[in-house]
């Protein structure tokens, strides 16, 4: 499997350099794009990829999003035409230009779920990962599993985090700012409460990441009690 490549430190938009999202934010944005508008789009459903959505693995390789399928299309290119153009445009838009290309390759093992020890914070999407429709239930479990003795200050800090992404083995929490991310570690009891909540959910050594990216925070998917 090709290595995942970190993003550059900045990107240029309209002649002005801006800070590029960190690699984990890029990966999560790509996952959210894929599970949101891509797999439900008419162009995707009508394409050769439409029947294989659950078996496609996605990897970031440099400035490209690579779709790996367990089906060999021979000399055909499933990204040819409007679908490929639309994907490239949207991938570039959501990543701030860090990822600009979309490619495809065949691998007969692409549809197989990956073992927990082979995953990382930079995973984009793998077969077996839940869809966005599963996130509210995961969020409800995380809220329920927060330790009962968690202090109010810690609950307030954690409440600002958004459940940005979920894989078969990992959870990503987006903080609305760098200060909010830092507060998780600096507020007494907050880091422990989050650790305990994820551990009770995964029932193994918890695999999760807190990172700063306001784009990953949905108001209806924050840890704040509802």
Automatic annotation (TrEMBL):
It comes from the Bacteria. This is Uncharacterized protein. The lineage of its organism: Bacteria, Bacillati, Actinomycetota, Actinomycetes, Propionibacteriales.
